[in-house]
Amino acid sequence: MEPRTEVLDLPDGYRTQPQTITLTWDEVREKLRAASSYWLATARPDGRPHVVPVDGLWVADAFYFSGGDQTVHIRNLRANGHAAVHLENATAAVIVEGTATWTTPGPDLARRLEAADKEKYGYGAFLPEVWELRPERVLAWNSLPEDATRFTWT
Question: How far is CA 102 from CA 4, 58, 77, 116, 129, in A?
Fold first, then answer.
């Protein structure tokens, strides 16, 4: 399902003229797919944020990643699946917000994940169970504020 695309609302003073450009989901999807590392934000049980760099794969419009059971981000996700992941470039940003779930990919998706893992990291041995972060909202821009775009799924 393709997302709804709209101009990202920004506070007063960010724009000197009306925005006429939005990014396409295809170009943002490609940035997510091509990234070599990501920053994952989760919430600790007491509400404090936790941010950690992770390897991951953007496949079938979702972010797939893993981590050891005792790592802070995995313990946080087991208690509260709300999370955000963003790319390293703050100037041309992509920020994904959604809910992460522990999942067992079906055979077709598992093959796609293995192929993507081999292409990106050289391993090709993705775990049988992984975390899947499905986007609910994505914020992205190449040049703030000229093309600041919000993508939403309903």
Answer: 26, 16, 9, 19, 7
Q: Which residues fall within 8 angstroms of residue 51, CB to CB, at 6 or more apart?
A: 39, 40, 41, 42
DSSP element (H, E) containing 32: helix 25-34
The DSSP call for residue 116 is H
For residue range 76-116, list pLDDT tens digits in order: 999 999 999 999 998 999 999 999 999 999 999 999 999 99
Q: What six digits make up the tokens of 65?
A: 């990643």
Model pTM greater than 0.90? yes
Strands 149-152 and 130-140: antiparallel
pLDDT at 18 (0 to 100)? 84
Please report which confidence band the pLDDT of residue 6 belongs to, taking 50, 70 and 90 as the band edges: very high
Residue carrying the six token digits 């992941």: 85
CB 142 within 8 A of CB 92: yes
C-alpha to C-alpha distances, 20 to 8, 12, 14, 24, 55, nearest whole angstrom: 11, 17, 14, 13, 34
Residue with tokens 């609910």: 136
Structure-token match 């709804």, residue found: 4
How far is the C-alpha of 101 from the C-alpha of 120, rounded, in Å? 23
